[in-house]
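Re: [ENG-882] Designed sequences occasionally contain unexpected residues at chain ends

Forwarding the minimal case from QA. Structure tokens:
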């Protein structure tokens, strides 16, 4: 852990009177970080605020909050907490992260803090980098996450990036630091957990200090990205004005510069949420630019819309609530509710209502994802069986305010194929049947 102490002392240069907010779950990582900062407090008279978010998805989470609150009381640390009462219909992890960081920022501003510190460590960095390589990202995205992020009035700092989970557990044991364990971190249904359980042990068996190689990779990509961005900024001023891309000037650029330009605008739009953007999103934007349609748009995660209007392209958050849409389903469809429908090749996945298997002999291309229309009916597998989409929503107890935004998959003749997570039509197949298309709703 000496690298952590050196980083805070020599690079961050903590000084007397600094105000630090620590995002703390009560787990071994964040409790170790809290202990490190309390060690500095003894000589620097730091003000330390512990900010805790109860995600409200496990029964024990309220006991974890009580544990952390008592620890803070015993160690003269200011304790702040919140409970997430309700989630929307976005991706759970992305939504929880947004709520968490918005809350942390509120606490930072409440106390006028200099730093927000989180307990991301070296193993987290490995997982993040490999996950982004697999799903595709930007140059900056491939670097994982930064040890220091400059905000308007404070810095986000991740001091534990230099050490591994095992280093942290050893430190906790040596210092007799108590902590709680979130058992959901071991469930295989979460993508990151699968990487943690399978890939990480393999990499460490090859090199026990592999996290240092990834840290160097992180720094190298950030340096390259910083340089390339300085060059892109020169181009950006000519092509991108008033939040709009001049497509005539854009089309004159080298393809590499075009791609980086799109990523640069996406980075400005998503900022710290860049992890939810990948190559497929950029592919959608490039197809939109090349489209012969004078006016068209595509939806990206987190309520971002890319609009093409003749010779301009605009990327930004759609502040208006989307109540109707129709999106062509190619390899991906990114929906206004933050979910995706994706064509997949994994024949081993289940056959629940989040998966749809179809044969191209039964449909007419292309496929579309749209919202419901008045009088919509779905043809069921029973002989002569039809059912109103309205009745399917009622039977499934879908709240009225969600029905108008719920995705409905149709073919080009407007034949309803599937209502994701709710109902399949007569045109869908079982695993034992013949099919050549698999769709997955996430």
């Amino acid at each position: 852990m000496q690298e952590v102490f050196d980083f805070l002392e020599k690079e961050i240069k903590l000084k007397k009177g600094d105000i630090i907010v620590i995002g703390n779950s009560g787990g071994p990582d964040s409790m170790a970080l809290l202990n490190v900062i309390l060690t500095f407090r003894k000589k620097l008279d730091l003000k330390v605020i512990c900010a805790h978010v109860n995600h409200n998805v496990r029964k024990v989470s309220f006991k974890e909050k009580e544990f952390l609150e008592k620890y803070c009381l015993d160690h003269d640390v200011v304790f702040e907490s919140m409970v997430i009462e309700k989630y929307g219909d976005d991706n759970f992890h992305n939504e929880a992260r947004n709520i968490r960081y918005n809350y942390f920022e509120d606490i930072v501003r409440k106390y006028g803090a200099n730093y927000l510190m989180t307990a991301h460590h070296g193993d987290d960095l490995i997982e993040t980098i490999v996950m982004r390589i697999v799903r595709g990202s930007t140059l900056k995205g491939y670097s994982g996450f930064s040890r220091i992020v400059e905000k308007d009035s404070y810095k986000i700092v991740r001091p534990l990036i230099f050490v591994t989970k095992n280093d942290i557990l050893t430190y906790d044991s040596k210092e007799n630091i108590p902590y709680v364990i979130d058992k959901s971190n071991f469930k295989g249904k979460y993508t990151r957990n699968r990487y943690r359980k399978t890939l990480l042990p393999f990499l460490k068996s090859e090199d026990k200090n592999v996290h240092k190689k990834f840290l160097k990779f992180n720094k190298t990509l950030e340096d390259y990205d910083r340089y390339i961005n300085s060059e892109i900024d020169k181009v950006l001023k000519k092509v991108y004005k008033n939040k709009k891309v001049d497509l005539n000037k854009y089309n004159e650029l080298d393809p590499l510069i075009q791609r980086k330009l799109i990523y640069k605008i996406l980075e400005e739009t998503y900022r710290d949420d860049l992890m939810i953007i990948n190559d497929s999103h950029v592919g959608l934007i490039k197809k939109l630019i090349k489209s012969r349609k004078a006016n068209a748009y595509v939806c990206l995660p987190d309520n971002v819309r890319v609009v093409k209007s003749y010779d301009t392209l605009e990327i930004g958050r759609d502040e208006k609530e989307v109540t109707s849409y129709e999106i062509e389903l190619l390899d991906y469809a990114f929906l206004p509710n933050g979910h995706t429908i994706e064509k997949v090749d994994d024949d081993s996945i289940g056959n629940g209502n989040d998966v749809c298997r179809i044969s191209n002999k039964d449909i007419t291309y292309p496929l579309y994802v749209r919202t419901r229309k008045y009088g919509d009916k779905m043809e069921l597998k029973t002989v002569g069986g039809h059912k109103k989409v309205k009745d399917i929503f009622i039977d499934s107890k879908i709240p009225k305010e969600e029905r108008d935004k719920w995705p409905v998959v149709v073919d080009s003749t407007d034949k309803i194929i599937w209502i994701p997570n709710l109902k399949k039509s007569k045109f869908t197949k079982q695993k034992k049947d013949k099919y050549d298309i698999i769709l997955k709703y996430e």
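QA comment: On inspection the terminal residues look reasonable. DSSP finds 14 helices and 22 strands in the chain. Proposing we downgrade this to a documentation issue.
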